[in-house]
Give the backbone structure.
Amino acid sequence: MYVCICRQITDNQIKDLCRDGASSMTDLRTRLGVASECGKCGKLAQSIVKEYARSTPFVNAG
């Protein structure tokens, strides 16, 4: 589904970016341009990032 109409960015693109380490709106804005035009997609994009973070199990690197 399209999240950002202005930049033609989908939820799958955001999830892929999260898998690659993005964890904030700043990361999304820098890499994809999400919420940099009209800003209406900001809340949905942020909820996708938070949902991805909740669904990813914590891995102890130590």
